[in-house]
Amino acid sequence: MGREVSESCVDSLLTEMVSSYCDRFYANKPDLAARRIEAIGFQVGLQLSERYTMERPRFSDHLEAIKFICKDFWSELFKKQIDNLKTNHRGTFVLQDNRFRWLARMSVDPSPENGDLSQDNPPAENKAAQATSMHLYFPCGIIRGALSNLGIPCAVTADISNLPACSFVVRIKA
Amino acid sequence: MIVCVAVVGHQNNPLYIQSFTEADDALKLHHIVHCSLDVVDERVNNPKKSGPTLNETFLGLLYPTENYKVYGYLTNTKVKFILVTTDLDVRDADVRNFFRRFHAAYVDAVSNPFHVPGKKITSRTFAERVSTIVKSFGSSSAG
Amino acid sequence: MANFLAQFHTIKNSSDHLVIAVEDVSDLWPIVKSEFEGRLPFKRASLNNKTRNSVFVENLTAEFILTTDSRLRSRFPLEQSLFWFREPYATVVLVTCEDLDEFRTILKPRLKLIVQNDEREWFIVFVSKAHPNNDQATKLAKKVYAKLEVEFSSKKRERCCKLDIHSPEANFWEDLESKIMESIRNTLDRRVQFYEDEIRKLSEQRLMPVWNFCNFFILKESLAFMFEMAHLFEDALREYDELELCYLETVNMTGKLRDFGGLDRGDDQAALLNPGSKPLTQIVQDDSFREFEFRQYLFSCQSKLLFKLKRAFEVASRGYSFIISFSKALALRENILPFCMREVWVITACLALINATASQYKDGPPDIEKEFYRLQGDLYSLCRVKFMRLAYLVGFGTEIERSPVNSALLSMLPWPKPAVWPLVPPDASSEVLVKEKMILQETPRVKHLGIQRKPLPLEPSLLLREANRRRASLSAGNMVEMFEGRPIFNDGSGSDASTKISPSQKVRASSMSRTNSSPGSFESSIDRPMRLAEIYVAAEHALQRTISNTDLWKSFSSLEEYEKKYLELTKGAADNYHHSWWKRHGVVLDGEIAAVCFKHGNFDLAAKSYEKVCALYAGEGWQDLLAEVLPSLAECQKILNDQAGYLSSCVRLLSLDKGLFLTKEREAFQSEVLRLAHSEMKDPVPLDVSSLITFSGNPGPPLELCDGDPGTLSVTVWSGFPDDITLDSLSLTLMATYNGDEGVKALRCPAAIVLKPGRNIITLPLPPQKPGSYVLGVLTGQIGHLRFRSHSFSKGGPADSDDFMIYEKPTRPILKVFKPRALVDLTAAISSALLINEPQWVGIIVRPINYSLKGAILHVDTGPGLKIEESHVIEMQSYVDVSQSAADMAKSDAAQKEGSLAVDKNFEQLRLHDGRIEFPNWANNVTSILWIPIRAISDGLARGSSSVSPLRQSIVDGMRTIALKLVFGVSHNQIFERHCHFPSFFQTLAVHFTDPFQVSTRIADKCNDGTLLLQVILQSEVKATLTINDAWLDLQDGFVHTTKGDGRPTSGFFPLVISPHSRAAILFSICLEMSNAEDEAKALQPESILNINYGISGDRTTGAHPPVAVESPGPKGARQDLIFRSSLVLQRPVLDPCLAVGFLPLPSGGLRVGQLVSMEWRIERLKDFEENEISKHNNEVLYEVGANSDNWMLAGRKRGHVSLSTKQGSRIVISILCMPLVAGYVRPPQLGLPDVDETNISCNPAGPHLVCVLPPALSSSFCIPA
User: What ipTM was reported for this prediction?
Assistant: First the structure.
């Protein structure tokens, strides 16, 4: 089953999906579009976790599963591991990817010098941020799908305060 | 030879169950598979039992009966694979190998975007693949 | 050495405790015996276990035996070494002595003699009989004891202790015990050492032919037994385990075929718990141990120790695996063992084990406990299976429930394969007949609800065939037959799946065939094959021979007994499983119990158990298994008249996978449901059919309605019923997604509905809803008395596009009701003016704002001065924006021309019925334009204006209004209002009408012959091209046309074309009419009329256009001519001036508000008039200064007489002070001479029409209010 597909193809597929859901199917309903994109990610995560956990012993606790996401799962997806994992040991984990591949080509100027400048043109900034976050529902869904398939129901959100670094916040439902 | 193979979902619901007997005792095999879930539960819930094979996907022999041997395999995603065979001397390696290939086939089947997770597996390719795996069972421990 | 075995065992059985020898030197034992034995058993002893670690043992039992006792005497040294374990472990030497000499001479040598044998662990107890009061004696005793100690005790070991009979010290007994313990410990260690050495020696040669297991066994067991006596059970157990291990690996090693055993009467009853069931001597012959007995013996020893260790759980677990492995061993020997020996043994073994462990088990940790119960369950069910099998063999098979669990269990363990099937005893014909009857009476278990199922197999293949084939084959003795019959050898499971034979099995089969020759004779076996009944009888007899246990046999004596036992076993298994992890096993077995209850009419219990089973299967979605149990449950409920339960069961049956039942079966279920529904149910039960009837909105966008609109909602309903089903009523609830307070609305289906199997489309009337978006809620309905409800959205339907995200899918709104908004827009097609007084098309653009105008009706009401040309049709056509309008126009014109309106659906002629116009359907959704022929009436002639006095005509008098009211909407509930909050229903459109021209005139030139050129300027007022075909002027009195014609300009001008909003002029040459005053008096025509005959060519879409022809318009060529009349006022010019009034120029400084200025006029008499003497005082002139008092303040006399000589050329200046009041261009004051006819006054130079007044200078102190 060694069939492969080029990264650029995947990237453009992602952007295409996002744009078609945001601009066509659910043009003026961003929340609906978000849900749908997240749902697609969920299923993808479900299936990927099914594949990537083959040939490995079962995880004994949540942390192991999260570590699996950070290490093997992430490197399968992005050829790199999560750069930083934080947790409060009460079911919340923060996975930070310092250069999240799917945002690498996002045309939001994250340079700090226009960070202050961004105050006086909030609309543009917001629009850009919204577009970016739209692209983040997919990976969020993937993570959630993978974890819940591993028996860890959780909620996943993404934080892009400092691009292109992106941190995913996983809250495990008790 | 293998009498029956089954995939059981994480809610212990049958996802795929195929018996390879001419006789119409499929129900019987359903029962065997279903009850073997008890053993799986026991292995998983009972820490003492799963001492060395802690968290290993291959659960080994579930039922040590004389005519049927029931083997189990539990994935990370709580999906169970059950194998019922009538062979009296089964090499552990063969069973592990079987499960590995079976698992791979399953993963490919559920990776089909048109497969609804948690629903029965209806893919024909999957069925064919499984039957080939079953046929080749025990013939070679490699592969 | 084997011959010691018997002795060994007698010893072993006789003695089970340590022995302590008492060397009573001076007959003290009788005195101290009681007190010594009072110490037994030792509360707490510390010994060394096999690994030389000290362990404490409780209540160590021991026995004091005098050395003179027969038991300790006369032993051969060999025996001693062999049965060392029974030798004393300590030797207590009892002495007393009052005299030193006696001690030195007699006692000491004797003691020396006693203790010289260092084999023994010994110590001396010195008993002093001295009375405490007799201190002489006590002193002596002390002395002697001191000597004794000196003699026998050593530094490293204290071997003496002293007992005062009369006053024993408190610590004596402790001392004694410790000494005894010390001795025992040492002895034990030494002996353990000894045995171990021996054993090692033996086991080194284990694999040599000289190897003798018997010796090994004796040594091993001696050691084990010694440990056991010393309460070192752990070690004992380990010894036995090693022994078993060694046995198992050596027993089959030696080539020669051993006697297996198990052929004696009573062997069928497992002896795995009582070691003494058989003397070892029977087990062993020439050092070969019979496996059958010996393994049981070993296990019994182990279990005994385990019980002593309070490890009943381990007994159970070891026991279970022992039974399994042992029954395998039995299977290998089956051909030599009695018929079904194996089954019987397993049954008894299980029961024995169950009873023993259950009684012994004390509560352990929870996980252990769970597992213990599981083991019990396993034992029970194993026992149960074997029991059922035997029952089957004796012909109770018909009574066995053919359930999956039984089928599976029976097939998971091999069936008996005796070398020869038993034969019918000669005198059993009567029994055969009985069985025959039983077989004939056997009715195939009919499934409930008329479900036909092939019963699951219990037996391997047909028992008949097998039994006979086996016999035949054996009689013929041919191997081939054997092999193709192999499946039955291989496994009883009847799954003839074993096509490839694993080599080991081959060997087995052949070996069996070889050994077949041992028992049984074949003479009688070559005869007609047995009938089934005969087989039963034969089996029964054979079993009776096999089973020695009477009450086990009783269970096969009759059906009742059998069922009693069967229930007992099943219950046992189920209950134990319920306490373990294996819930499923338990529940499933409950189902078996239920089957029996059902058979005995205990439906209540049966139903309860079946409920549990169904819940289990349904919960985990094992439909195939569920389909097996559910009918039974349904049957129970039916019998119990539990209608609710029965209905739901039927529904569940119907909602199972289609493949699981035949169509006619499913139809039967449905008919059951219907029958109940229409039968009299005392309490109508609500039934949940979510699994059977599902519903969903139709794919596609939701139905969109406007506020207050009713509609029809069509939903898809999936019916899982196999056949059409009639719903007496059906209703769906709508739930508002946003405003929860909206609650749910129920939509009722008006009539009964017939649901086809599968997909149905149902349309429901939808009353007006509040704004918001709605989703489907619950489907409820009624079949007969049966109220059902379904909560589930369509999953039964085809997976719609994103069904794979069903768990994520937001419930799709099915209905959207919009907030109030403008639904249609009515505007006037054109803003430019139309021709007044002519029938004109007024265009009204009707633009629906994505809302259908189906059946809309327009009420038209014309305002004052406006009337609709009722006589003419109203035209309606689809409206396209201006760019294409022309083309569209042309199209519709063309359509008109051919008179084929039908082809062009977007043009239609409508009639006005008492002010109402009904819209055609094609106009429902397209923007259309409505052309209404209308005429604006205005009486009164258009007035022309002269250059002198331009008259402004206001736009207002050309304005007319049309009131419109559009009634539309699904039920004409929508009434068009311009903005919905606008109170009135009506919208009024303003339409502007006007004359074609605005006329103004001026005198272009005045020739000296008195001819005047009158220029008439025509300003086109309309957005259309006007063509003047003719124009003539009816002059007022005093004017005549110069040319003696009708006063038409040269016709060469015409037709004169005036493009929109441009102007044209016509010249008329006229001159004054010389007429005398008297006929002037009768002045008829005060003003002259301009007549213009013109045509108009315009487009109604842009503005004014040819008037609507009331009758159908003729050919376009014949343009109808229109007449336009306008009145003009001409002034006569001054002819013979006698006075000239000149306005003297104003001061150069100009005028300023508030600045006095004197206006001056010069009056000059041009000629005197002698002929008229009317004026007697014609030397003075009346003057009058008129001025607008708003603009001017006049100082001085406005009116007065000035004298002016009648002489020609006399002149006078009239000046008047006046002050301008307002700045700007104002008309200056005018000087008038009322007495003089205007015609005699020439204004020369003429005064200005307007003068400029500057605003006041700031410095001016004028007009500061005082």
Answer: 0.86
